[in-house]
Design brief:
Order of helices and strands: HHHHHEEHHHHEEHH
CATH architecture: Up-down Bundle
Radius of gyration: 36 Å
Helix content: 55-70%
Largest sheet: 4 strands, antiparallel
Number of domains: 1
CATH superfamily: Outer membrane efflux proteins (OEP)
Number of strands: 4
Shape: elongated
Distance between the termini: 80 Å
Structural class: alpha+beta
Strand content: 5-15%
Length: 479
């Protein structure tokens, strides 16, 4: 009676030492709390600045050269976009989603842990048994799960790149609004000076008895209305600066004293320089939502393949020891596919694959339609811009010089010249409005292809770009 129990203790001790030794080799992670303090996060948001050293390093790493002097005399769209990418809380959130998707790849590739079974002898101690079972996944399930997780990771990365593009789009739209607001105030101030001169000339005529008082009063009323319009326009400038600060992700106080520059703002690309064939090709091939829909479809393909593979049962196999027989044995267990062959999950996976295919086609069709519509609107806005620019140029080159010669010859007075000069800021405002529509249409066209269309602009990162993974280097979109 003592020998079997002694052997039992030896075998049990050996197996327990083996199991716990294997478990002890793997590092055990401890939970570390990471509480969030609203007061601290709010303080860090308020402390953000364009002049922070880390922002400088990020911008310099991505433009490929040192920025000298620092801080720059004026910030352009490229640098503002990079600052927004650095600070954007949306990108931080989507980066976390990419990290979760990458962790899912690790989860899909891990091997299942073995199972240790200890069955006491009841009612006799001689029925005591030990089993160590290993799970064997059949039909390549682990490989399929890894491929599915990789497809979902690619979709998450494309979602991150799409979020980066939206950040750039928001910064561009805010900067366009700021430039339009500042230029609009300048034109209104020119018109105000000319209107003030007109009131002065009319008062002189009234004093000479050449005109009646209602004419002067109407001119003064127009001048008062002009001042109200200027005050309203001036109020829009801080609004646009606040919108720009929000698009960058910094407090509006961080833009105090900051100057902006956009060399090609008044010269958007010509309609002839943008090919409809290239726009449609870029929309189909470069749009991130199209590529994301394709990655999601690939994930549904893998999901269907996995459900089909699950028709083949996994196997449990391993050694065991039974005290009553005093010998080792090999245990084998498998689920018998008698009552079902996984028909339900397979049908669900097939339906999801069809849904993903339809979603991809719908996305592609929408992208093509959006690009064609955006290109048509941009071409129409460029025609209007060219027309107003031509009219303004004719006024500058022909009408104003001719009126000056007429006044110099004594055939007209300064009041007539003032009336002609007043047409310049009025027509310039029409040109500025047309420029604003053209810039907005260009932004919509860039959003349709998710690619900058102006020379010298920033190329946003691809889904594989290190910048979208938390690094400081941006890579251009490769087409």
């Amino acid at each position: 009676m003592k020998r079997p129990f002694r052997k039992l203790r030896c075998i049990s001790a050996a197996l327990l030492l083996l199991i716990f030794g294997m478990a002890g080799c793997a590092p055990v992670r401890r939970y570390r709390p990471a509480p969030i303090s609203p007061a601290e996060t709010a303080a860090s948001l308020q402390a953000r600045s364009l002049l922070a050293p880390e922002v400088r390093r990020f911008i310099q790493d991505n433009v490929g050269h040192d920025i000298d002097p620092w801080p720059p005399r004026a910030w352009n769209l490229k640098m503002l976009t990079l600052a927004a990418i650095y600070y954007s809380p949306v990108l931080q959130q989507t980066r976390a989603q990419v990290s979760a998707a990458k962790a899912a790849v690790v989860t899909a590739g891990v091997r299942p842990n073995p199972t240790f079974q200890l069955r006491p002898g009841i009612p006799s101690p001689y029925l005591y048994s030990l089993d160590l079972l290993f799970s064997i996944q059949t039909a390549g399930k682990r490989k399929i799960m890894v491929e599915q997780a990789k497809d979902l990771t690619m979709a998450a990365r494309l979602n991150l790149a799409e979020a980066a593009w939206k950040v750039r789009s928001n910064v561009r739209a805010a900067l366009v609004s700021y430039f339009l607001a500042t230029r609009g105030v300048g034109l209104l101030q020119i018109q105000q000076r000319l209107q003030t001169r007109r009131v002065t000339l009319l008062r002189q005529r009234l004093a000479a008895g050449e005109i009646s008082r209602p004419i002067v009063d109407n001119a003064r009323l127009s001048l008062l209305q002009m001042r109200v319009t200027i005050e309203t326009a001036e109020g829009r400038i801080p609004e646009t600066r606040a919108a720009l600060a929000a698009a960058i992700g910094i407090p509006v106080t961080a833009l105090k004293g900051v100057q902006f520059v956009w060399p090609g703002f008044e010269r958007p690309p010509s309609a002839q320089s943008i090919s409809s064939r290239h726009i449609q090709r870029d929309a189909v091939l470069n749009r991130l939502d199209v590529r994301k829909a394709l990655a999601e479809y690939a994930a549904t393909q893998a999901a269907l393949q996995l459900q089909i593979a699950k028709q083949h049962s996994d196997v449990l196999i391993g050694p065991g020891y039974n005290l009553s027989s005093d010998y080792f044995r090999l245990r084998y267990a498998v689920t018998l596919p008698i009552f079902n062959r996984n028909q339900g999950p397979i049908a669900e996976a097939e339906a999801r694959r069809k849904e993903a295919a339809a979603a991809f086609l719908a996305t592609q069709a929408r992208v093509i339609a959006d690009s064609e519509e955006a290109l048509a609107k941009y071409r129409a806005s460029i025609r209007v811009l060219n027309g107003t620019e031509k009219a303004l140029g004719e006024l500058e080159r022909v009408v104003v010089p001719k009126e000056r010669r007429t006044v110099a010859a004594g055939e007209a007075d300064r009041l007539a010249l003032n009336a002609v000069l007043l047409q310049r800021p009025v027509l310039a405002q029409a040109w500025l409005a047309a420029l604003g529509r053209a810039q907005s249409a260009l932004g919509a066209l860039e959003d349709a292809v998710e690619r900058p269309l102006e020379s010298g602009d920033i190329s946003l990162p691809t889904s594989q770009s290190p910048a979208l993974k938390g690094s400081t280097k941006l890579e251009g979109i490769k087409r």
